[in-house]
Structure formats: C-alpha cells, structure tokens
Amino acid sequence: DQIYNGALDNASGVAGLLELAKAFAALDRNPARSVLFLAVTAEEQGLLGSQYYATHPVYPLNQTVAAINLDGLNSFGPMRDITVIGYGNSELDDYVVQAAKTQNRAVRPDPEPEKGFYFRSDHFSLAKVGVPALDPDAGTNSVQHGESWARQQRDEYTAQRYHKPADEYDPAWDLSGAVDDLRLFFRVGYRLANEATFPNWRAGTEFQAARDAMMAGAR
After folding, report:
1. How far apart are CA 62 and CA 24, in angstroms?
2. How far is CA 111 from CA 38, 84, 116, in A?
C-alpha cells in the first residue's frame, strides 16, 4: 500500500515516550521537579508542534531544566554504545555518559554530522530558545554482530524504509536494545528531575547566549 505508517520513525518513539511516562507515574515518590511528556505534531512540516510549545510553554522556559528528544527506538538489538546527536553541545552529555556506564556502554557522537540531524528534529525548537536539549539515538556497535552489521542495518533502513510506506512494523524487530535505551533515558530523566542544578550549554555553543540571558532575567 501507499500508507506512510512511520512504524519506526516515529511511532516507536511515541511508544517509548508512553513507557517512560508510565515508569515515572509508577514511582513510589514523585520526583522533586515536574516531568512533562510531549507528543508534538508536524515535525516533517517544519517542527510546527514543538515550535508552538517553545513559544507557548506550559512552564516558563527559565524553569525548564532540559529537553530530551525521543524520535524513534532501536529495533536492531542490544548495542555496546549509545549515540548522542549534537554530542559536545551541552552538559547533558555528562548525564548520558554516567547512565551509559551502568550498562557498560560507551557514548558516541553522531556518525553523520554532515546531515545536520541536530537541526532537524523537535528538540531543536527548544534549543533555539536556549533550553539545553538532548537528542540520543541508537548505538552503532551491535553486541551480537558488531559495527559493520549495525551500520548495514541503519543504511538499509535509511535507503529502503525511512520516510517511505515500507516503514512498517516487523515482527522480526529485536527490541531488547530499545529496552536498554529506555532504561538509560529514564536514568537521565530521573536524575534531572531530582537535582537542583540546571545543566547549561558548553561554552561557545551557539545556544549558550540565549540560555544565559534567560536565566539572568529569572534572577
């Protein structure tokens, strides 16, 4: 058929978002900070939903600690690493590194920075106005099959299914790696939700000035 189901990108991400929300709701004690889960619309039309939120936030942006984007889940099994799109931009990287260590995983930068993925997904709407934004992605080194196999799977998905009707659910998906990733994201979110600190952008990052001005205005 010609229906664009978007099973991996990004229905799987919405499923992951709901699972994380359920995990936070099941905690015996609420986190010290509010945790907001957003499923925004029209990313492919120009980040319209996330841009609307960035200009009409539920909570003031100078009280918004961070944004974590979940665009899609890993369907290729467990990985020895986790990718961070835009690695090096903010102190949120340190949170991912710490959480990854609990799973004996490495943190890798975007293997294809020339494609500008950091500037093409919903977290960017919040980054532009100064909120530190994290965009994690699936790893690149399969526990079972190695790096070349993982790269081949990603390349095949991009060429054959990405933004095409062929992006449909496949019973052969191995979602054990997605479970690992969601546990890692939960650790990052839980830590952010219980600390009193506000992670910032790295010095010299293009978004730092907006955040600094925002936070100065709050004092």
Report:
1. 23
2. 27, 9, 11
The enclosing domain of 24 has a CATH number of 3.40.630.10
Q: pLDDT value at position 219?
A: 54
Q: For the residues 157-165, what does the mean pLDDT come to?
A: 91
Q: Residue 63's domain spans which residues?
A: 7-213
Q: 60-101 pLDDT, tens per residue?
A: 999 999 999 998 999 999 999 999 999 999 999 999 999 999
Domain presence at residue 159 = yes
45-56 mean pLDDT: 88
* Token code pair at residue 73: 């889940």
* DSSP notation for 121-151: STHHHHHHTT--EEEEE--SSBTTTHHHHHH
> 67-68 and 133-137: which strand pairing?
parallel
Output DSSP code: residue 26.
Answer: T
In a domain, 184, yes or no: yes
Question: pLDDT value at position 218?
Answer: 63
- Residue 1 in domain: no
d(CA 197, CA 33): 11
Task: Look at the chain and report how many structural domains it folds into.
Answer: 1
Give me the sheet containing 81-85, strands edge to edge. 67-68, 133-137, 81-85, 106-109
